[in-house]
Amino acid sequence: MFQSVDPKTLDLNVFSAIEDQWMLVTAGTAERCNTMTASWGGLGVLWRKPAATCYIRPQRYTREFLDREDYFTLAFFGEEYRKALALCGSRSGREVDKVKECGFTVETAACGAPYFGQADLVLVCRKRFVQPMDPANIPEDVKEQFYGEKDYHILYIGEIVEVLQKQ
């Protein structure tokens, strides 16, 4: 059972939650959605609203859903879902039904954005800004380390419109 909570009440180490525990970025509808594991992102305040950022490579299938929809979710899970999150980060939704493979139950937020009932915490985001990273503004050492294929991430910023926490 999830309860809607004020984002300011969260007791979350965002550095550990995103980089170490990972998150699922999900977009689409209850009937047809796609998800991917992400370990790059951030939480903060933008335009006087709570905001979340995530970075998606252009070839990722989830990008098609993010570009099409007005809302997306970021979901955080307990350690018992590590294998499922690893699958969601290594397999394409074009090739496998990740939701079925992981045994996830699709739920929907009030705005219709999909998330998974197995999550501990869900950030429901209204897409507010999208911009491809400009390689001219990326340091050479970063390009060498992370962009050998020249597949520069696309930045998505979402206003956090609802926070759902498992009770």
Largest pleated sheet: 8 strands, antiparallel
Quote the beta fraction.
Answer: 35-45%
What structural category do the secondary elements indicate?
A: alpha+beta
Low-confidence regions: none
Distance between the termini: 6 Å
Number of beta strands:
10
CATH architecture: Roll
**Average of the residue pLDDT scores:** 96
Under the CATH scheme, which class? Mainly Beta
**CATH H-level superfamily title:** Electron Transport, Fmn-binding Protein, Chain A
Global geometry: globular
The total tally of domains equals 1
Write down the Rg.
Answer: 15 Å
Précis, in short:
By secondary structure, the protein is α+β, with helices and mostly antiparallel strands. It has helices at residues 14-20, 61-68, 82-90, 98-102, 140-146, and strands spanning 2-5, 23-28, 33-38, 41-46, 49-56, 71-76, 106-108, 114-116, 121-132, 154-166. The strands form two sheets. Strands 1, 2, 3, 4, 5, 6, 9 and 10 form an eight-stranded antiparallel sheet that branches.
